[in-house]
Design brief:
five-stranded mixed β-sheet, 2 helices, 5 strands, 18% helix
Amino acid sequence: MTDRCPILNDREFWTRLEFATSGWLKNSDNPALRRFWIDGFIPEAATNTKRGLDVAGVVWLGKGSRMQYQYRFLASAPQKLLHGHRHDFEIENLSLDEGRQLLEIVITDQKMP
């Protein structure tokens, strides 16, 4: 797994995901999700999957203009994203469970037009 774990330390990727996730939440069809934003991902562990890699860790989730909460996150990334080109991605799906304080994100490689 060593060749697949550089994503854990790729600060640029996690910053880009922070902004992409905040934008996804802001533009969500679900009005309840629009009040949330992301203030940082802290990846801690990675698990190989058939699809690619699941990365787990801590995410700081903002709610409204001033409140922030520490949640857990699980981000599923495809194989293609693990071998460079981590700037070409988009969020395929996002799920926020306030009760479990868990944010789940499915990331996909960006489709070229």
